[in-house]
Structures are given as structure tokens and as C-alpha cells.
Amino acid sequence: MFMNRQELIQQIREKQSFLCVGLDTDLDKIPQSVQKQVRKEYEEEEYTFGMLLEFNIRIIDATAPYCVAYKPNLAFYEAYGMEGIAAFEGTIEYLKENYPNHFIIADAKRGDIGNTSKMYAKTFFENYDVDSLTVAPYMGEDSVTPFLGYKDKWVILLALTSNKGSHDFQLIEDKNGERLFEKVLKQSQQWGNEDNMMYVVGATQGKMFEDIRKIVPNHFLLVPGVGAQGGSLQEVCKYGITKDCGLLVNSSRGVIYASNGDDFAEVAAEKAKELQQEMAIELAKFAD
């Protein structure tokens, strides 16, 4: 089921949450209890697939009441070859079957010339049938518009990211003082709109959200970097929240790896609930 803008806003209001849980699933961090379960239930040649999928299922079941979106990071599945890709597919299928009201973001950061982008779009929007895909806009309009050809899907463009190296290029100013990320925000609005395009803005950028909202006052922003990377939820909301919320704040390591013991799912639920409660406070502030 495709989730349009109003349905996403409705989910945020009902759950009093704009939390996205990042499924950056790493075999080296999967608890022993999951490994033991997989060895009982799967053939040896399927151990990798089984561990990735079983860990995701446990995390999803535990955190679903507190979030509105999930974001599997493709690098953590492609690294394990066919078994990893199968686990990614299994995760998407599990979400669609059991949690159809959760927004699914494939964090793949694709971006290439037109024909290649068409194939990437087909892969994620037809074959995997996810709601949205992160896309790198560096190669310009013809590398992005193939993804926007799917009327029932969202494109999430990289704008101002949370990593330290983001300043290497994204803050470069032209002769008029316009920064590169601002140019991306302005130019891309000629390609998509508030109903099919979001932007990635790192939580560590703080007050920069104020500058971003001057250009894209109503678009949804996908915000990584809260928690493990040091971003402040309160600061993000101070400068970035809108009347429709306009934010999907992602937490990956801070939720899914909060514990490496047998209680990992329960602790993940606790961390997700803590974030949801903080988000409810921020939503209430804006409502007031």
C-alpha cells in the first residue's frame, strides 16, 4: 500500500511519533540468542539470511508501536551477497504483510545517468515495491527524474548530510554566496513537489534547518544523526518542525544495538519509546 503525504501525516498524529528506525543490520553485532535460534531453524547455507532476517523481525516487532517508518540501509545487505539481498527482500515482505501502515525507505543513495537511474528505479519501485528511495542529486536532473516517474513513490534527495565531510562540498558558495546544498534544494523543486520528494538533512546541522526551511518550508525532511552521531532532537525540532511535522527522524545504532544481550529487542523497544515520548512533547509544543 502506497502511503501518500496525508496518510503519513495521519500516522504521525495518531502515534505522536515521527521516528524512523534504521535497519543497519550487521552480522558481527547480532546477539547470541538470535544465532542460536537460526542454527535450530535454518540450514547451514542459509545462516546469514536467517540471522539478518530474524534480527530484523525481532527489532520490527518490538519497535513498531513507537515509529512510523523503517529504513533498511542497502549496504548492510549487499555486503552479504545473495543471502543479504534475500534478507532485505524478506524484511520488506514482512513489513508489508504485518505492518502495512509503516513507511518504508530503502537507503541506497542511488544516482547515475538517466538509463541507469531508470533501472535503479525499476529495481526499488517495481521489484521491491518500497515507498521511497534515497537518491544522490550530484549528476543533475536527468539522473533524478526517472525516480520521479513513479507517481505513487517518494524520492528522498541528499541535501545536507550529517557526516563531517559534508562540509567539503555541500557548503561551497558560488559567486553570489549561494551554497551548494541551497542550490540543490532550489533546483530540485522544478523536478518534484511536496507530495513526492523529501530531503536528507543531518541532525548534526542544527541551526542550518532554519536556512533550509526558508527554501523548502513544507517538504518532509529525513533526519539521520540523532543519538549515536550526536544530533539533538530538540534542536532539529526547534528549527525544522512544521505544522504537518515535516520530519522523519531516524535512529539506527541508538535503537537496534542498544543492547547486545538476549534482551536486545526489549531494550530497543525502550529506546524507541523514549524517542517517541520526546517527539510527542515536541509535537505538543508546536500544536500549542
Mass-distribution shape: globular
Total strands: the figure is 8
Termini separation comes to 33 Å
Mean pLDDT: 94
Order of helices and strands: HEHHEHHEHEHEHHEHEHEHH
Low-confidence regions: none
Fraction of residues in helices? 40-55%
Largest sheet: 8 strands, parallel, barrel
Strand order of the largest sheet: 1-2-3-4-5-6-7-8
The total of helices stands at 13
Describe the structure.
With 288 residues, this protein is α/β, with parallel strands linked by helices. Helices cover 48% and strands 14% of the residues. An eight-stranded parallel barrel has the order 1-2-3-4-5-6-7-8, surrounded by seven helices. α11 (233-240) links the parallel β7 (221-223) and β8 (247-251). α2 packs across α3. The mean pLDDT is 94.
